[in-house]
Specification:
single chain, 0% strand, 78 residues, mainly alpha
């Protein structure tokens, strides 16, 4: 589904203003559309990216003192 960006921004502006009026937020403390987009989309996606990078690093790099180390010595038979 394709949305017209101008319509989405207009609806977001009206919605922000309406909810801030209902919640009686003083005009000096009201947030604008840019701040709302940062809070709702950008910040959670940034934190999700950081978490996935940490998880990928944990899964990809084995610890150096692991049980299955690279110093395996075969049993010699005489």
């Amino acid at each position: 589904m394709v949305f017209n960006s101008a319509v989405v921004v207009a609806v977001a502006d009206v919605s922000i203003d309406t909810w801030q009026l209902i919640c009686r937020v003083p005009p000096s403390q009201r947030i604008n559309t840019r701040e709302l987009v940062d809070m709702v989309f950008c910040y959670p996606l940034h934190e999700l990216g950081r978490f996935l990078l940490c998880l990928w690093s944990f899964v990809s790099i084995p610890p150096s003192d692991s049980f299955y180390s690279n110093t395996y010595e075969p049993i010699s038979t005489f």
